[in-house]
Specification:
By secondary structure, this protein is mostly helical. It contains 4 helices and 2 strands. This is Helix-turn-helix domain-containing protein.
């Protein structure tokens, strides 16, 4: 019998938390990645989702793993 893996979803709140824990502002992420601050804000607020290339840039700038931006789909944070 095959195990069902729980669904994982990108969490803008996790992005915000990781950024703050790293002592970074949105403008710092913009400078490090070249990603527009409005786009980053849209991700944090849940209006848009980042693509895989953007996730890699974010993880590198913040100093975390891409997986750290994801939570179980039924988790709030």
């Amino acid at each position: 019998m095959q195990k069902v893996q729980p669904s994982r979803a990108f969490s803008g709140e996790r992005l915000r938390k990781l950024r703050k824990e790293a002592g970074l502002k949105g403008s710092d992420i913009h400078r490090a990645t070249g990603i527009d601050q409005r786009t980053i804000s849209a991700w944090v607020c849940g209006r848009r989702l980042p693509n895989s290339q953007s996730l890699a840039l974010l993880a590198d700038a913040i100093g975390c793993r891409i997986d750290d931006f994801f939570t179980e789909a039924n988790d709030v944070a």
